[in-house]
Write a structure and sequence with these properties.
Helix content is 74%, strand content 9%. With 137 residues, the protein is mainly alpha-helical.
Amino acid sequence: MAYSNFYARFFAYLDRVKLSITAIFRFRPSYLYIALVIIWQIIAWIQAWLIRSKLTTDILVLHYNVDFGIDMVGSPRQIYFYPLMGLAVFFVNIIILAILHKDKNFKIMAHFLLGAAALFGLFLSTALLAVYLINFR
């Protein structure tokens, strides 16, 4: 009997997840935001790969501050944390939006959360461009 109860709860949970994900995709502007996030993610991963492939030393300058100069140095593998942060922000925003799918302000929250993820991807790509310029120019 306990197995049947677990089985029923598991599939009820999957139905709720499916309902919340379809609510996100029923909202048409979400396609634009998700496309922008995917484009910025592809660009960020390409930028990180180019930085890693051009690097000849074991040290990579990851951040530069105008007032103090170089303030973050790391191994070349750490350049991949930038695109991973973009993915994390996107998935956290999708999870928050899925939780709020029954809220009366769902459309506004979708614009804010998905727009923030797309804007974060733009800033992330800009930061990777700055890392490239600091290391190779």
